[in-house]
Specification:
Layout lengths: L5 H14 L1 H17 L10 H7 L2 H4 L14 H11 L6 H9 L12 H11 L9 H9 L13 H19 L3 H10 L36 H10 L11 E2 L12 E5 L2 E8 L3 E12 L2 H16 L6 E11 L1 H6 L6 E5 L20
Helix pairs in contact: 1-10, 2-7, 6-9
Amino acid sequence: METLTLQDASDRIRKWMNAHPGEVQAKAAAIDRFGKYFAPDNLKNISDQGVKQFLTYRANRHWMGINRHPIYKDMDRLRNALALLLDQSKPIIDRLDRLINKSDPINIKGLNRAVLTPILMCVYPEEYAVYNNRTTTALSSLGKNPIEHATGMGFGQRYVEITKVCKSISNEIHLPLRLVDTMFAMITPHPEPSGGSTGDPGPVTMEDDETPEDDTSLVFDKEHHLERFILANWDKIVPFKDFELHRDNPEDEDESACQYRTGIGRIDMLARDKDNWVVIELKRSNSADEVIGQVLRYMGWIKCHRARPGETVKGIIVAKGFNEKLSYALPLVSDVSCYTYALSFQVSPHGEAASPTPSA
């Protein structure tokens, strides 16, 4: 993980602001628009389509990947949950701990920290920060993550501590919390799409010794696109459906299922069942034998730091394809399995069945 000073990060956001005044304005307008939309006195007027739109990056201009769950299926229930979230007469810790508690009747699957805290920021932009993986990763890179080594701290309290630090950063660099959130996007590994806060993420590069795909094949543009596809279709993919994605904090839901942090790097996906841990490494294109060493390192770390006596650790590699070198190494590694993925896309005239059938 890149280590930065706050001055370095501040210089980046200001340089971007000077180069993209239109995008700065668009982001501010999106916060203002959805702040009015989700205001407590307007909750009676929100609709499933309006909520669905907010969950898209195209509309909110800040947050990707928060549209995985249809939290808008029961709008009356959602309105009640948002009314609690935005009720400033109650302590924020109590509000969040209730909303995130799966045994509480007000809990809605998918209404997690990655959705709750952006809504808080939109409605109360000077009071609340956003708390998601991007936030904690950025704060760690700045050496300012207040919960990095915290244990036994509830979700609401963690959010309060995160917000305190974000407000301190906001005051120090003289930028509003929404631009602190944009700054965090610039210093974390996964850039936003072209036209977003980080601009053009640049060309896609292949790992050393990877072989290019056939020009006619379909392939994911970036590895985190492959991550998201698998995450959204987990129960339909045969190698994975018997496992559950591991999360250190239950309230994180899908958000922490990818890029699991270890002391030696990030595991693309970490899963488990009753007696097994599964390290999953994803390659958007073809891969070579170097990936075996990478997976084994992560498996060893999980064995030392997460597995209990009697639990096993296995590895799964998913790629577009594998070159000849890996085919020689794989038979000697019994606890690692390799799978190739295939994408199929069919276009048919209107009225005829079209069947896009991605598979892995």
